[in-house]
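User: My instructor asked us to take a sequence, write out its structure as tokens, and then describe one feature of it. I'm not sure where to start. Here is the sequence I was given:
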Amino acid sequence: MIKLVVLDMAGTTVADDGLVERAFTQAIGEVGVAEDGAAFPGMLDYVRRTMGESKITVFRHLLDGDEDRAQQANQAFERAYAERVADGDCREIDGAAAAIRRLRDNDIKVALTTGFSETTQRQIIDALGWGGLTDLTLTPAQAGRGRPYPDMVLTALLRLGIDDVREVATVGDTAYDVRSGLRAGASIVAGVLTGAHDRAAFTEAGATHVLESVRDLLGLVLPAKEDLS
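Assistant: Let's start with the prediction itself. The structure tokens for your sequence are:
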């Protein structure tokens, strides 16, 4: 029986609509990498492949471990993303909030996790009116490390009083989400096709399930008698 569901945000419960790529383009430009420069296409490809990973970790890799530039780029990314959220360029994946409520109505705890900072996560939650929607929200800084490490999943388990990792389900739109869930020992580790990665990427990463949407998780974790309509 699943007692905790750990959900990713951007691409899983919150529509990305290219926000990450646009914020990245602005941020990397602030540390001297022009969009028409020779290095930019390779950097953007890396960002796409590592969607779901902690953003500061991505910038450290792209900027060859230059911590000052990585921190500057990360802060610029958070500002750029927040500006777009404030402008109303933020919406939920259809049915995500209703699915979360249905899970909690069935005594399943729900945690929202992200690779963003706590400030950006809070701005997204406020913009969507999701305050109090879940039992817990977590960022890499609050848990220790970001994906693909298991820290956020295990932190959610500990804070919410779950006794067994096999009582946990994880859902995300990237292979990094899948690896995090598997490393944590979750019994359901699902990829969703509403975000960055495709079915082949999830299969290669070892996902237990590939879902069209987070809404489809209900059919996996709720009792068979529960009306899913």
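For the description part of your assignment, you could build on this observation: The beta strands are 4-8, 109-113, 136-138, 168-172, 188-192, 209-211. Try explaining in your own words what that tells you about the chain.
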